[in-house]
Design brief:
The protein is α+β, with helices and mostly antiparallel strands. Helix content is about 35%, strand content about 25%. It has a 4-stranded mixed sheet. About 5% of the residues have low confidence.
């Protein structure tokens, strides 16, 4: 085989390889369709064969959450008071009215005989008892003893954000956390707990949702 013929065959082979590569590329999935993360743009994920910005909130930056595969800004999110409107402060990365941050409003406490079982309030999406909540439960335990109450029921409530199922579960976690702590302080009283989730929520924004995130007490 002479040099010219060999050269022609090499060029022909390269041409066939190039045509094959172009054909393979043309037969691939059209964006945003995908089979794996590698089919998506950098920083995206393949979810149910579609390229998306995120799978979970952890895939989004601070101040954003994953909704329907997209990272959306969390309303009212803040890192300092300068991010909030006038008259509000930044508390746990949420803008709240300065007055509500100091003292959440009281709602229908069970009262009699000079003491009351005041509601216990919680932070957004939390069932953790902070120091203020524990202090209120200690006051409630003293009131239960003073009034000689034999049975108390705790009802967990949430603000309206989130699904109904999630909020029922969150309300139950809040009620159970308060019940467990109160049982340690009032061993002689019978405690029960349930959740109503968002059913009694009345707030419309972060300034008023704070009063929805609570546990109420009822004498039994």
């Amino acid at each position: 085989m002479d040099l010219a013929t060999n050269r022609a065959l090499q060029i022909s082979s390269l041409g066939l390889l190039l045509i094959g590569a172009l054909w393979a590329a043309g037969c691939g999935k059209d964006y945003p369709a995908c089979d794996a993360d590698e089919d998506c743009h950098q920083g995206e994920f393949c979810v149910n064969n579609l390229c998306q910005q995120c799978r979970t909130d952890q895939d989004c930056g601070a101040g954003k959450r994953c909704e329907a595969g997209a990272c959306n800004a969390i309303p009212g999110y803040c890192t300092s008071a300068s991010d909030c409107p006038e008259g509000q402060v930044c508390e746990n990365n949420m803008c709240v009215n300065s007055a509500s941050a100091v003292a959440p409003p009281k709602i229908d406490p069970v009262s009699s005989g000079g003491c009351a079982l005041d509601p216990v309030y919680f932070e957004y999406d939390s069932a953790t008892l902070d120091q203020s909540s524990r202090d209120k439960l200690a006051t409630a335990a003293a009131c239960i003893k003073t009034r000689g109450l034999k049975a108390v029921h705790l009802t967990g409530l949430t603000d309206p954000r989130g699904t109904e199922e999630y909020n029922l579960a969150l309300g139950d976690r809040r009620a159970q956390a308060a019940k467990k702590y109160l049982e340690g302080l009032s061993p002689d009283a019978s405690m029960s707990a349930s959740s109503m989730g968002e059913e009694l929520a009345t707030g419309s924004d972060e300034a008023t949702w704070g009063r929805d995130r609570r546990v109420d007490f009822q004498e039994r």
